[in-house]
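Re: that chain you flagged

S.,

Sorry for the slow reply, it's been a week of failed gels. I finally had a moment to sit down with the sequence you sent. For the record, here it is as I used it:
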Amino acid sequence: MNSIFFYASEVDNSLKIQLRGERVGGIIERNPWVFDVLGGRSVKASVEGTGRGSLLITEIENEILAAQFVPSGELLERVPLVLSVAIPRPQTIKKLVQLAGTVGLKELRFIKTDLGEKSYWKSKQLRPETVEQEIIKALEQSWDSEPLKWSIWESLSSVVGSEGVDCTWCADTDGGDLLHEEVSGIKGGGKTNFGEKGVMQVLIGPEAGWSLREREYLVAKNIKRIGLGLRILRVETAASLIVGSLLERLERN
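Prediction finished late last night. Pasting the structure tokens below so you have them in one place:
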């Protein structure tokens, strides 16, 4: 990993850190190089709600970590994108959390859909403690300080009809407007590209596709269909392609 992440509750008012127990073991497991920084050398770190900076570690063992955090950067701005995906295979859940957490998406939503594999809904990968660990890994990889917001939704309609987003695109294997053409129409620097809230939602369906009922609902709601080419892509590949294309455009000045 590139840095160490700490929750706000783990840092006192003077930005000192005193940790014990299992949490320290997790930090060491993800960041075995921390033993090389004792003796005055600082490392990258971030604190929830505070920002990025450096960390001076004065003591570290399997059960104890003592350090001083020195802030040097503001909170990173969240990307104005919500990624909403039909609950996929367990191994894909982990990849999506890593993607959304590393690039700093506003939110990741998992949807229960008509044709989605219901056994996936009970996956251990969707347990809060499991997702939390993947989010921490993403934060430490990207040197970020704001944990990813994520949730599980009961239906497509509940996601599309939710508050907080201005527009929604839906990846569609049956065609639609080509991704690169639609992305090229977005102005650079994108805070106000999508409306008053400035937030776009991207939908990706299950392996079996959207049901007829869900498709009719998407049409009724005038959701824009986005084609990704002639090939059928894996969920994580489609998500990376869409998010990457939008990020490149939104971050242009």
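What I noticed first: The mean pLDDT is 89.

Talk soon,
D.
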